[in-house]
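Contributing new complexes? Match this layout with 2'-deoxycytidine-5'-monophosphate.
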Amino acid sequence: MKKIIIAIDGHSSCGKSTFAKAIAARLGYIFIDTGAMYRAVTLYALENGAIPSGVVDEERVVKMLRDIEIDFRFNAERGASDIYVNGDLVESKIRTIEVSNCVSAVSSIAEVRAKLVAMQQEMGRRRGVVMDGRDIGTVVFPDAELKIYMTADAMVRAERRYKELTAKGDKVTLEEIYENVVSRDKADMSRAISPLRKADDAIVLDNSNMSVEEQMAWFMKRYEEALAK
Ligand code: DC
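Output block (do not edit by hand):
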């Protein structure tokens, strides 16, 4: 059967990963969360002194890159892959507010992007992947057969993220989450290299008022159309 690349880009915390994971499970495709890769580099930089007092030291991050080996291993219980850095499972450590606050700065470094984009292109070489991020339809796979640009109201996104983090026991406030969501949108859209933008041929999905089931029904129609092309 024909397999394609499905590129899902969009704003922070609008449910891209949940959506992409559900699509991959439905289609038997591989799901790749590229945000997790930028978060993994950020975590490594935080733990190894390249972000003293919250300020990213670009030169040190670039020097560290050769010491960072990222890989994904399938976790049958979760039905998705977990991310590992140098053999250590970091899946939950990369989702903290500390990492979220530094990841936009780390992901704006050209060398970081070059390394991760090359890995992503290799992972999608045989197609049959659903990849979510900020530059998948514009830079990583400009030839993706189906591109979706996701967005939702910033407060709706902050509330969803707040629920997720507090359910895990994280001590956060809705205000700080909202500020993080808004400032990451701004940083992601205004950075010099590969800023977040809608690819000309991407279809917009605003899921502010949509259930997961409604999003899946919306998606399946677009998928059939893309396959028929
Ligand atoms: O999807 P996420 O929120 O986990 O992504 C974390 C950060 O990584 C996001 O603020 C911007 C960056 N990112 C990126 O620059 N390019 C991607 N393809 C994916 C994420």
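Reviewers usually confirm one structural detail per submission. For this one: Residues 8 and 145 are 11 Å apart (CA to CA).
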